[in-house]
Design a protein that fits this description.
about 400 residues, BirA Bifunctional Protein, domain 2, about 25% strand, three-stranded antiparallel β-sheet, 14 helices, 15 strands, nine-stranded mixed β-sheet, alpha/beta, elongated
Length: about 400
């Protein structure tokens, strides 16, 4: 490997693979119950597609050596949206789709080395449903899916919700020259920079209230109404929270509103959310999602107004927090035999065990005695010996 490269993903052992498979099965069973169809977006795509209209910067994409501008996907939404707007353009809307697979990100570390991050993602996308109710469906699926993966009880989770219109309301109240800097300050929760930024004391005082206005959705909406007036989006969000907060309570997941929340990728142009679990004092992002109508518009080849929304789970992070324990005492039989002439009978015994839907392996070489065969049980990870000797 190039000395300037640093591949950060470790190989998974057998138990980690088993847990990952369990998590995928639990998530995917929820998607299917809600009527979502599985698709498999390409691992390698054109750079133009992977950049998602500029939402993902070029240097974050791991390039593939080719005559064309190709790269490994850093996420799957852009490829799914492109397919929905081209190859599946004539399919009835809405499209409810789910997918699971590996993604790759290219990052420059503090040491100047290129860091390749490989991870597993699983999520859903809805294309072509121009209704606010789709956010309710997505958040409901998110909560049901999370409930199935069985997180450790000590790991409390919450859903942090924002909306791009709330940031716009804040910025529209400021002069044009300040908006870009103020947006960075608010989204990065940079109190030091806000205190030092050259604005009037009244503006600074108001922005300090804004940056700290996060938590109970209804309190935050009341603050926005009293500060910026009765905006249409506030009514829409109130209706959303009146439905989703009780659902969150049902699953013991707190729902919080943060008007300054912005995700890493600038994919979204409406509601945005992330699922967070706290391990000690460090927040761990388990899922992200939101509405991305503008992304759909980029790929759409028709005049109709297309819409899109979805979310993605990060399975590697969820695996760290699950209380699922791999079954280490599975009943696996070892079929062993004494002489070469016994091998055919041993294979027949192996087949009969498999036909009973039970696990079994065969020792590839003859064993001189049943004692030797019994010594192999632990080494082979088996619990029961099937001894063949004629």
């Amino acid at each position: 490997m190039d000395s300037k490269l640093n591949h950060t993903t470790k190989e998974l052992n057998a138990q980690e693979v088993e847990i990952s498979n369990f998590l995928q099965q639990q998530l995917e069973s929820t998607y299917k119950q809600w009527g979502y169809e599985e698709i498999s977006p390409p691992l390698i795509e054109r750079i133009e597609t992977l950049m998602a209209g500029g939402a993902i910067i070029n240097k974050d994409i791991l390039k593939v050596v080719s005559d064309e501008q190709l790269g490994l996907r850093p996420e799957m939404t852009a490829s799914i949206v492109k397919a929905a707007c081209t190859r599946w353009a004539k399919k009835n809307r809405p499209l409810r789709l789910w997918s699971t697979g590996k993604v790759f990100e290219s990052k420059e570390g503090s040491d100047g080395k290129l860091r390749i991050e490989e991870s597993i993602q699983s999520g859903v996308e809805v294309i072509g449903l121009n209704e606010d109710s789709i956010e309710i469906e997505l958040l409901y699926i998110l909560l049901e899916s999370l409930n199935k993966v069985n997180l450790k009880s000590t790991k409390k989770a919450e859903i942090l919700i924002g909306h791009t219109s709330l940031i716009k309301i804040i910025l529209d109240s400021l002069s044009h020259t300040d908006r870009h800097e103020i947006k960075d300050i608010l989204t990065n929760y940079d109190l030091v920079k806000l205190h030092n930024y050259n604005i009037s004391s009244d503006t600074r005082k108001n922005l300090l209230k804004v940056i700290k206005a996060r938590g109970n959705p209804f309190d935050v909406l009341d603050f926005f109404k009293s500060t910026y007036g009765n905006q249409k989006i506030l009514k829409t969000l109130k209706e959303l929270f009146e439905i989703i907060v009780p659902i969150g309570n049902k699953y013991d997941i707190s729902i919080k509103l943060d008007p300054t929340f912005q995700p890493h990728y600038d994919l979204y142009n409406g509601i945005i959310f992330q699922l967070i679990s706290y391990s000690g004092s460090t927040p761990l992002v388990l899922a992200r999602g939101g509405r991305y109508d503008e992304l759909v518009k980029i790929f759409s080849q028709h005049d109709r107004k297309e819409t899109g929304a979805g979310f993605t789970f990060y399975l590697d992070k969820i695996r760290e927090l699950t209380k699922y324990e791999p079954i280490t005492n599975k009943k696996i039989s070892l079929v062993a035999y004494k002489n070469k002439s016994d091998k055919e009978a041993a294979l027949a015994r192996l087949k009969s065990i498999h036909e009973q839907n039970q696990a079994a392996i065969i020792e590839l070489s003859p064993c001189e005695s049943i004692k030797k065969a019994q010594e192999l049980l632990f080494k082979r990870g088996c619990t029961k010996l099937e001894w063949i000797s004629n």
